[in-house]
Structures are given as structure tokens and as C-alpha cells.
Amino acid sequence: MDTAEVLLQKMRALPPQRLAEVADFVDFLKAREEKARTQKIDELFGMMDQLATVQPPLTPAEIQAEIDAARAERRAGSHANRR
Fold first, then answer.
1. Whole-model pTM?
2. Does some domain include residue 45?
3. How far apart are CA 65 and CA 52, in angstroms?
């Protein structure tokens, strides 16, 4: 039996006034999740704004140079681990 079915069975055993409390609690949980999601989205957009103002965008050649350097560093590290 899945969680939703277990919850439904438990709710069916509750008196009507308690069901109203359950409904209120579910609304509270939904609002809390929405608030958390909105805060995370706001944080993400804030970080994106900060990143956009830090440096001018990299050129394709600069991107390739970064990739090449990271690969060389990774290779040097894996060679050092073999010794």
C-alpha cells in the first residue's frame, strides 16, 4: 500500500473537525514549499546577475583554453596517482 492510500485510510477515520485541521496543515505545507521554491529561484537569478557582472563573457578561444588546462591538470593528477 502506498503512502497516499495509508493517509487516505487514516483520514477516513478522523472526525470532520479534524479533517479541517488536516486540510489546513496541507495548505500550510504547500505554501511553505512554494515559498522555498520561490526563494531558491530568486537566489539562482541573483547568482546569475552576479555572474553576468563579474567579467566579460569568454571568447570561444578562451573557453577552449580553459578546457585544455583542466584536462591537462586532470591528466597530471592521474599520472601522479599512478606513481
1. 0.51
2. yes
3. 20
What is the signed CA dihedral for 33, 35, 36, 39, rounded to 10 degrees? Answer: 160
User: For 28-75, what is each residue's pLDDT tens digit?
Assistant: 999 999 999 999 999 999 998 887 777 778 899 999 999 999 999 999
* Amino acid 57: pLDDT: 80
CA 56, CA 26: separation in Å to the nearest integer? 46
**Grid cell in block for residue 53:** 557582472
* Main-chain dihedrals φ then ψ at residue 2, nearest 5 degrees: -85, 170
69 domain-assigned: yes
The alpha carbon of residue 78 and the mean position of all alpha carbons in its chain are separated, in whole angstroms, by 31
Domain extent, residue 47, equals 14-82
Q: How many domains, in total, are found in the chain?
A: 1
